[in-house]
Amino acid sequence: MQISEASRVSGVSARSLRHYEDEGLIVPGRCSNGFRDYCQSTIDRVLVIRSLLESGLPLRLIREVLPRLNGEPDAGAGVVCAQFLHEVQSYRDRLAARIAMLSDQRAALDAYLQQARRTDP
């Protein structure tokens, strides 16, 4: 699919798609006329990138972590510095805290709905 369709399907602007490509996060194919050609796996990768960005992970860490999340070959190769590990751990901890908070909110809503159903005439 071309960039306009990829933008619509992913919910990410065409400008962001070009930026992700410039940053080396995605590599869309090219049609014979030079237009970008986005396959579903690239769209899936864009959605992961967007989710990580929305969760607060900086682009430079996403660039390092993304291959590991997608199970790419040789993704574990190379030495990982302590600062990078600390930043990823910090991100993971923030994500775990958000998940816990959302679980608590869901439980509170479930309790409210259960109570409301008991008192509904």
TrEMBL record:
The keyword DNA-binding applies. Keywords: DNA-binding. SMART domains: HTH_MERR (SM00422). It comes from the Bacteria. Coiled coil: none annotated. PANTHER family: MERR FAMILY REGULATORY PROTEIN, REDOX-CYCLING DRUG-SENSING TRANSCRIPTIONAL ACTIVATOR SOXR. This is MerR family transcriptional regulator. Residues 1-68 form the HTH merR-type domain. InterPro entries: DNA-bd_dom_put_sf (IPR009061), MerR-type_HTH_dom (IPR000551), MerR_fam (IPR047057). It holds the Pfam family MerR_1. Gene3D superfamilies: 1.10.1660.10. The keyword DNA-binding applies.
